[in-house]
Design a protein that fits this description.
Length: 287
């Protein structure tokens, strides 16, 4: 087992975000047909142990958006590689990384789990990535800042680290509109209820992000209302219109029944007609 190595540059701290863009220049990128579906891939790459094979599979799949978990930066177990950066460079993608943990280099670790760097989740894409951030969880079943001898879970005690579970989130601007993407690694050293509590944080975040987008772009909703035209009943014959003399007399239909005020107030407004995706908030995809 080697000793810890000094990283070539300062490593991020938990909740910090790293952004890179290795895509070709805009005029050199291939065009994407508007009708083609957006292809997404989610993969826990297990610290990038077989990095070359991982890159080979990702190149063959050729997804538009990647949500990857267990990204290592400068850890002995993964050959001191920046695994996410290597993938982004090899595939020519934009890249957002959220740091979860500082992986301590410790004699308690086995060679295949040895740390020395940091660990987290990432979103990679052929498209522009904006609003990349770390989503905080309200529930943390494992306190990773406890010393190993106080960890209640025996497997957690063998992987000393500092930090907490965090989800990477970003808006990806696809050819069909903005897409809200999450790359989550929920706590694995706990039961299903604790994991569901962390998952509920992501659902809560999607609602907040949709509301935020609506506040930033109120004209998008106004656009729908301006398009909606409700025909009004004619109260008199237009001056330019002539009624043929031979036309039979048709009695006017009876007026509709008058709704009571209480029912009118309780009736919901008619929904706006559907419009292009670019006028809608991002679709929420927790992956």
């Amino acid at each position: 087992m080697d000793g810890p190595r000094k990283p070539p540059c300062p490593l991020p701290k938990p909740a910090e975000v790293l952004l890179y863009d290795f895509r070709p220049a805009p005029d050199q990128r291939p065009s994407i047909p508007q009708e083609r579906p957006v292809k997404l891939l989610q993969w826990n790459i297990e610290r990038g142990y077989k990095l070359d094979a991982i890159i080979k599979v990702l190149r063959e799949v050729d997804a538009d958006v990647l949500a990857l978990q267990e990204i290592d930066i400068h850890c002995e177990r993964s050959g001191w590689e920046d695994t996410g950066l290597a993938i982004a460079k090899a595939l020519g993608l934009s890249y957002a990384f959220v740091c979860e943990f500082e992986e301590l280099h410790s004699p308690l670790r086995s060679p295949d789990t040895q740390g020395g760097g940091v660990h987290g989740n990432a979103i990679l894409s052929k498209y522009d990535i904006t609003d990349a951030r770390a989503v905080e969880h309200s529930s943390h079943p494992v306190d990773w800042d406890l010393p190993p001898h106080l960890q209640p879970h025996p497997l957690a005690a063998k992987e000393p680290r500092h930090g907490r579970r965090l989800t990477a989130a970003a808006t990806v601007h696809t050819h069909q509109g903005p897409l809200l993407v999450y790359s989550a690694h929920l706590e694995c050293f706990c039961g299903a209820l604790a994991r569901m509590a962390q998952l509920s944080d992501l659902f809560r975040d999607t609602r907040l992000q949709q509301r935020r987008l609506g506040e930033q772009h109120p004209h998008q909703h106004q656009h729908h209302h301006h398009q909606q035209q409700v025909p009004q009943p004619a109260t008199e014959t237009p001056a330019a219109a002539e009624t043929p003399a031979a036309a039979p007399s048709v009695p006017a239909p009876p007026p509709p029944p008058q709704a009571c005020p209480a029912a009118s107030l309780a009736s919901p407004p008619a929904p706006p007609p559907p419009g292009p995706l670019r006028f809608c908030p991002p679709r929420c995809l927790a992956i």
